[in-house]
Predict the 3D structure of the following.
Amino acid sequence: MEKSLSRRKKSKRKKIIIVAVAIIVLVIAIRMSFKDDKQITYSTIVAERADLIQEISATGRVEAIESIDLAFENSGRVAKAYVTIGDKVYSGQVLVVLENLEETAQIAQAEATLAKNKAKLAELKRGVRLEEIQVQEVKVTNAETALEDAERKLIDELRDAYTKADDAVRNKTDQFFDNPQSPNSKLNFVTSYQLKNSIESGRLLVESILQEWIVSLDILTIGSSLDVYADEANQNLAQIKSFLDNVGLAVNGLISSSDITQTTIDAWKLDVFTGRTNVNKAIANITAAEEKVEDAKSDLALAEQELTLKKSGTIEEQIIAQEAQVKESEANIQYYQAQLKKSIIRSPINGIVTVQDAKVGAIVPANTTVVSVISDGEYQIEALVVEADIANLEVGDVATFSLDAYGDGETFRAIVVKIDPAAELLEGVANYRTTLQLEEEDSRIRPGMTADLDIVTAERENIIVIPQRVVIFKNSLKLVRVLREGGLVEEIEVETGIIGNRGLIEIVSGIEEGDVVITAIKD
């Protein structure tokens, strides 16, 4: 009976397990049934044709197309300042001038030299006339006469030099000697032993010099070798001057005593001074006379040479040489004119003066900005374009821009004319300086204004466009999900073009107009 009860309990437990499993299976089946019946929904758009514009936004600043700082190459004093800040100037207008009297005089002198050289060239090309030869012969004769006069003057100075030396020694100093012209001449006042010996031996030497000198001068004529006589005179005068210097030293050292009064000493000093002065003058006169003789010789040689040339007629080499002189004179004028231009600042453009630091009378250093000029009404915009946009930017792209001064309601147009190849780092981001030129002048636009730019980098007309966000990337491929009939979803590879405004992108190939493109999937 107990076994029967046990079998009934086991049978009941088995039935419970089977029922529980059946219930679980039923629940799973129900859930699976509900899952299969649930619908997946899609957000879609239709690929359509439209016009697309690709733009870059940037901020820039209005600047003058030309902004030029002007300075002098050389320093100098300001003579004239013709403009002030804000003045309108034209190209070539004189703005500031330094004092340039020296340059002006040099130009005038160079022009005079050029005129003389041109006249001589014309004369050479014309040839020499008989009258010119006769005039030159007269010049030679005059030069010969001048040389003879100079030689006679030199002879006179040589003889006068002897006279002055003789007087200085035999009249002015012999009063200090006993037996002055004899070999035993002795100084008759007391001085130092060494100086006394020098004076006494000097007196003996100059006596010999004077005796030989007068003999030499007695045979001096206009035909003599005057340079030899002049050298002899200079040597003699040097010896006599040395002797007189020693005598003067001794006399100036005398002190009045019972043997020599101060009056006597003063008289002696005056005599020695006079003798020394006359000898020095003789030396100077001979030197001057020699120079006149040499000048006269040079003048005669030149006159004779010119006479020879005139008699031989003009040769081709002379004309060529004179033409070279003319060219040299012309080059000198050009050089001095260039120097003169360096003292004048002219405006290189039509514009407006923005800096003027030149004050009349002030010294201006070289290479220091004195005047600045910006172009008048011709402005450009300098903007920095970030690296991400620079690949789409090209010279010639058109931009519209607004100015902060006038708000978004006023827009203007400009064209990209330059893109710098080198990047500038701004807060760690690479930017490229881009220059845009205004399409039209507008008096409202001024340098320094901030411009907000929209630069059109590409335009497409009647192309297939879709939102850029629906393009997905798989394994380096660009894909778009297209919803086909019957709910079939197909991933299609596409080729894209420009990215335009409103977040749209150009589809070059892959899908056609009218295709239903999935933008989002909802479970």
